[in-house]
Amino acid sequence: MIKFLTLCYAFLAMGTTITTAPHDVAYLFAHGLRSNQTQYRLYTRLEKPPFDTFYKTNEPYIIQEPVVSFNFPDSCEYYQATRTSFAQDDEIDALAHAYLDALHVGKKIVLFGLSRGAAAIVNFAGRFHPDAACALVLESPPDCMKNLIATHVKRLHLRYIPHFLIETVPSLMFGKYDKAGLAPIDMIDKINKDMPIILICSLEDSAVFPENTIHLYLKLLEAQFTCAHLLLLNKGGHAQLLWGPQGFTYQIVVHAFYKHYGLPHDEILAQEGEQIFKQTQPTKELVEQALAVQKSFIKELGL
After folding, report:
1. Is 16 a domain residue?
2. Element containing residue 197 per DSSP (H, E)
3. pLDDT grade for 83, boundaries at 50, 70 and 90
4. pLDDT single digits (tens) 96-152
């Protein structure tokens, strides 16, 4: 908390002023690995092309303006693996600065993250308990790098990989990663237990496997979170869920989630997603069965 307050004071000392009254709700977007802050445009309803004065409407979309986006330290002109901590300290600091920016445009903040960005949001929310955060929308968040690497090893049927090597690989891949540092699975029970959270993942994801995201959901259940949800899709590749075969399902369920918790939403989309949304709080048994048979527990729309 002291570190976060220090960041606050440092930011205010920069002389930033609020020129317009904040909206009721703003969105804070945390991008995935090998991308940058412009990734938010793909998920936002109104997009202004970089060299055009006209806005166009995106379909499908799951976030609306105003949106605050930012670059993680590894995302400059090109991806820099040596500057990546994969959702640990320096990336949490970058997210904290962006959160302060978001407070200038929204009284409440919906935090949306993709993959690494989603992991950073979990770590940020667990460390700093941001008061203005009103919901977390997390697409394909990994539980921790060690488990993610172990799942890759298991999926590849590599039975004889030494345990120490599994722990070493993330540090080789990500220059600033600390194997003793923060991991989302360890931060879950530090988040406000009334926080609305929805996790979205796909059985076809081969970058962040569904079981790694599901570990987070099961930890939420274990910690007795009352507003935790899981949308498990049968189809959709990593970072392509919204444009995959079941992207419309993703869209309508998130809008139903927004409506349920009193957040801005598209009423027509929310109504279409209501019946599926009601199925997004599965028991541990239902989730484990879904993984065993490789078929979602959701029964609607051919899922």
Report:
1. no
2. strand 197-202
3. confident
4. 999 999 999 999 999 999 999 999 999 999 999 999 999 999 999 999 988 887 776
What are the structure tokens assigned to 300, written together?
Answer: 């609607």
196 cis-preceded (ω within 30 degrees of 0)? no
Residue with tokens 């530090």: 190
For the CA atoms of 150, 154, 156, 160, what is the dihedral angle to 10 degrees? 80
User: Looking up tokens 């955060």, which residue turns up?
Assistant: 133
Query: pLDDT tens-digit profile of 157-213?
Result: 666 666 666 667 676 677 788 888 999 999 999 999 999 999 999 999 999 999 999
Please tell me the total count of domains within the chain.
1
Asked if the model's pLDDT at residue 6 lies above 50, the reply is: no
Q: State the Cα torsion 104-11-137-240 to the nearest 10°.
A: 110
In a domain, 301, yes or no: no
| Any domain includes 190 | yes
Q: Which domain holds residue 129?
A: 22-293
Do 280 and 287 form a contact (C-beta atoms < 8 A)? no
Q: Is residue 7 part of a domain?
A: no
The answer to whether the CB of 197 falls within 8 A of the CB of 218 is no
Can you give the CATH number for the domain in which 36 is found?
3.40.50.1820
Alpha carbons 230 and 280: distance in angstroms, whole number: 5
